[in-house]
C-alpha cells in the first residue's frame, strides 16, 4: 500500500475503533440509575 | 409514564439501536460510494458529515423519542404533535415516520429474504462448479419469480414469506423478548462474521486459489486519497447522503425505540455508542470485505465497472462465485458468514421498522401487541407484492428512491426545524442532557440549531436535480402503479392519524366538563 493510503486507513480505522470501544465501555461500566429505571433485567425480583 | 413495554437492559437497547442503523448498506453501499467519490478522500467529508449532521440528528431523535414516550406516544405523528400542540401540521409531518417504515419494509424484507436464500444455497453448494456468468445469471433467474432455481416453485416468494413470518413472529414476542434478543445475538455474530471475512479479504495472496492481486491492492485502491475530489460538491452530497442512510435517521425508528426510555435515564451516551458502533461496522468491516476480495480476483478495472451498477451486483452476483475459488468447505463457510452478516444487518433493521407502526396502533387504537405485529406483517406483504413481482420493471428501486431516500431527507429537515426552532433549543438541550452519562459539548447546541439544518437544506437542494430527472424519465406502467401505491399509503396513514386525533379530542371533551 502507498504511504498516504496507509496513513489515511490506519488513522480512520483507529479513530472509529477507539471511539466505538470507548463509548461502549462507558455504557457497560455506567452506574445504573435508581429504580424504577427503563430496564427490566435489573429489577428486584 | 404510560409505557406498556420496556427494554430488558441498557446494552440490549444500544445493540438494538446499532442494529437498527447497521443495514445491508454498510457492506454494499459504503464501499461503492467510497470508490466512486475520491477513494480515501471520501472518508474526510464522510466523518465531517457524521460529526455535523449524523451525531446531532441522533441526539435530536433520541430526545424526541424519550420526550414523546413520557407522554405516552411511541410513533412520530403524536410525538411531533406533543412538541408543538398548537399546530395541526406536525402530526401530519409525523406521518412520514410511519409511511417510510411501511414502504421501506415492503422492499427491504424482500432483499432480506435473498440473504436467507443465499445462505441456503451456500450450504447446499449450489454455486460450486458454476462459472462467473452462471452465478451472476443465478441471481437474475432468482428475482424472476416465476422461474425456480431449486425445484421449489416460486422460490423467491417462499423465502420472502418465510422472512416476513420470521419478522412478524419476533415482533410479536415484544421489545425485550423479541427485538432485543435478536439484537443481542445478531450484532455480535454480525461483527464476528465481518471480522472473519475482513481477515480473509485483507490476507488474500496473489497466485493462491486463482487470486490475481493481494488483498492489500483493494485496500490501497479504496484508501488512496484523491484530494481534488474533496472540493467537489457531488462528493460532499454523497458523503452526507451516506451518513444519512447509514444511521437510519429520518425514519422514526430511533424515536420509537427511545420512547421506552425514562427521563432520568441516559440517552446522550447511548446515542453515541450506537452511532459509533454503526460506524465501526461500516468503516472498519464494510471497507475490508467486498472491495479487497473483488479486486483480488477480478482486478481494479472490472470492479470499477461493476460498482457502476451499485453494491447489490457485487454482493449477490460476484462474491458467491469468488467464494467458490476457496474450495467447497471454505466457500460454504464464507457464504454463510457473508449472507449471514447481511441477514443480521437486515433483520435488525426491518424489526425496527415494525415498532413505530405497532406503537401507533397500540397507543391510538388500543390494539393488542400481537395483533399489531400481524397487521404489520400483513401490510408489508401486501405492499411488497409489486416489489416482488415487478422487480425487473423497477418497482423495487422506485420504492427505495421515494420512501428510502427522498422521504428521509424531507422528514429529517422538518424534525430538526421542529426540535431546534419550534420546540426550542433551551428545552431541546435540556432534553438531550437529562440523565446524561456524558457531558455533551456545548458547541453541539449551536450545531443542532444552525449547522445541521443548513446541512440538511443543502442535501435537499442538492438532491432536487436528481428528483426532477427521476420524475421526468420514461418508466413502465408498473412503476406508475408503485407511485400511486406509495401516495395512497401516505394518505391512508394521514387519515388514520386524523381519526386518532379526533378520538383523542373526543376523549378530552368527555373528561373535561
Distance between the termini of chain A: 57 Å
Summarize the largest interface: chains and residue counts.
A-B, 29 and 40 residues
The chain-level structural class of chain A is mainly alpha
Percent helix of chain B, as a range, is over 70%
Q: Say what oligomer this is.
A: heterodimer
Low-confidence stretches of chain B: none
Task: Report the total helices of chain A.
Answer: 1
Radius of gyration of chain A from CA coordinates:
19 Å
Instruction: Give a count of the beta strands of chain A, DSSP E runs of length 2 or more.
Output: 0
Low-confidence stretches of chain A: none
Average pLDDT score of chain A: 91
Secondary-structure element pattern of chain B, one letter each:
HHHHHHHHHHHHHHHHHHHHHH
Query: What's the overall geometry of chain B?
Result: globular
Helix share bin of chain A: 55-70%
Number of helical runs of chain B?
Answer: 22
Structure explained in plain terms:
The complex is a heterodimer of chains A (45) and B (513). Helix content of chain A is 60%, strand content 0%. Chain A has 45 residues and is mainly α. Chain A is rod-shaped, with a radius of gyration of 19 Å. In chain B, 57% of the residues are buried. Chain B has 22 helices and no strands. In chain B, helix 7 (96-124) packs across helix 9, helix 9 crosses helix 10 and helix 15 packs across helix 17 (311-324). With 513 residues, chain B is an all-alpha fold. The mean pLDDT of chain B is 92. Chain B has helices at 10-21, 24-28, 30-36, 43-70, 76-83, 89-93, 96-124, 132-143, 155-172, 175-202, 215-223, 233-246, 253-258, 268-285, 290-298, 300-307, 311-324, 328-365, 369-389, 395-433, 443-472, 477-511. The interface between A and B is medium-sized, with 29 and 40 residues.
Amino acid at each position: 500500500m502507498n504511504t498516504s493510503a496507509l496513513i489515511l486507513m490506519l488513522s480512520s480505522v483507529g479513530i472509529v475503533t477507539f471511539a466505538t470501544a470507548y463509548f461502549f465501555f462507558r455504557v457497560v461500566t455506567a452506574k445504573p440509575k435508581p429504580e424504577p429505571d427503563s430496564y427490566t433485567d435489573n429489577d428486584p425480583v | 409514564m404510560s409505557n406498556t413495554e420496556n427494554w430488558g437492559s441498557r446494552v440490549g437497547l444500544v445493540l438494538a439501536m446499532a442494529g437498527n442503523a447497521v443495514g445491508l448498506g454498510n457492506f454494499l453501499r459504503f464501499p461503492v460510494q467510497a470508490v466512486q467519490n475520491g477513494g480515501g478522500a471520501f472518508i474526510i467529508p464522510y466523518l465531517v458529515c457524521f460529526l455535523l449532521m449524523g451525531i446531532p440528528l441522533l441526539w435530536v431523535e433520541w430526545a424526541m423519542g424519550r420526550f414523546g414516550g413520557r407522554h405516552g406516544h411511541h410513533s412520530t405523528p403524536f410525538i411531533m404533535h406533543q412538541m408543538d400542540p398548537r399546530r395541526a401540521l406536525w402530526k401530519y409531518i409525523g406521518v412520514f415516520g410511519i409511511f417510510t417504515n411501511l414502504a421501506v419494509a415492503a422492499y427491504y424484507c424482500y432483499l432480506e429474504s435473498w440473504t436467507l436464500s443465499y445462505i441456503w444455497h451456500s450450504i447446499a453448494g449450489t454455486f460450486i462448479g458454476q462459472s462467473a456468468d452462471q452465478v451472476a445469471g443465478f441471481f437474475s433467474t432468482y428475482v424472476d419469480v416465476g422461474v425456480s432455481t431449486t425445484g421449489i416453485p416460486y422460490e423467491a416468494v417462499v423465502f420472502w414469506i418465510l422472512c416476513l413470518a420470521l419478522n412478524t413472529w419476533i415482533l410479536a414476542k415484544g421489545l425485550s423478548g423479541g427485538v432485543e434478543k435478536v439484537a443481542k445475538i445478531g450484532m455480535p455474530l454480525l461483527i464476528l462474521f465481518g471480522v472473519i471475512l475482513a481477515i480473509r479479504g485483507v490476507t488474500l495472496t496473489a497466485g493462491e486459489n486463482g487470486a490475481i492481486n493481494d488483498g492489500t491492492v483493494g485496500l490501497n485502491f479504496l484508501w488512496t486519497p484523491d484530494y481534488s475530489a474533496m472540493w467537489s460538491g457531488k462528493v460532499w452530497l454523497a458523503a452526507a447522503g451516506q451518513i444519512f442512510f447509514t444511521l437510519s435517521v429520518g425514519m422514526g425508528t430511533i424515536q420509537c425505540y427511545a420512547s421506552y426510555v425514562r427521563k432520568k435515564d441516559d440517552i446522550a451516551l447511548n446515542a453515541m455508542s450506537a452511532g459509533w458502533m454503526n460506524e465501526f461496522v461500516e468503516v472498519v468491516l464494510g471497507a475490508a470485505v467486498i472491495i479487497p476480495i473483488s479486486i483480488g480476483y477480478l482486478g481494479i478495472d472490472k470492479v470499477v465497472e461493476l460498482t457502476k451498477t451499485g453494491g447489490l451486483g457485487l454482493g449477490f452476483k460476484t462474491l458467491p462465485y469468488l467464494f467458490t475459488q476457496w474450495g467447497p468447505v471454505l466457500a460454504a463457510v464464507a457464504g454463510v458468514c457473508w449472507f449471514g452478516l447481511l441477514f443480521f444487518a437486515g433483520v435488525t433493521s426491518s424489526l425496527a421498522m415494525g415498532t413505530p407502526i405497532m406503537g401507533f396502533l397500540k397507543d391510538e387504537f388500543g390494539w393488542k401487541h400481537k395483533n399489531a405485529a400481524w397487521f404489520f406483517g400483513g401490510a408489508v406483504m401486501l405492499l411488497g407484492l409489486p416489489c416482488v413481482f415487478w422487480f425487473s420493471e423497477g418497482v423495487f428501486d422506485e420504492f427505495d428512491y421515494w420512501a428510502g431516500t427522498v422521504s428521509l431527507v424531507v422528514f429529517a429537515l422538518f424534525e430538526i426545524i421542529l426540535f431546534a426552532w419550534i420546540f426550542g433549543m433551551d428545552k431541546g438541550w435540556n432534553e438531550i442532557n437529562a440523565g446524561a452519562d456524558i457531558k455533551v459539548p456545548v458547541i453541539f447546541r449551536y450545531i443542532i440549531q444552525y449547522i445541521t439544518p443548513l446541512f440538511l437544506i443543502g442535501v435537499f437542494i442538492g438532491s432536487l436535480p436528481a428528483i426532477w430527472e427521476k420524475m421526468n424519465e420514461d418508466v413502465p406502467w408498473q412503476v406508475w402503479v408503485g407511485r400511486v401505491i406509495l401516495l395512497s399509503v401516505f394518505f391512508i396513514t394521514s387519515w388514520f392519524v386524523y381519526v386518532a386525533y379526533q378520538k383523542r379530542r373526543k376523549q378530552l371533551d368527555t373528561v373535561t366538563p
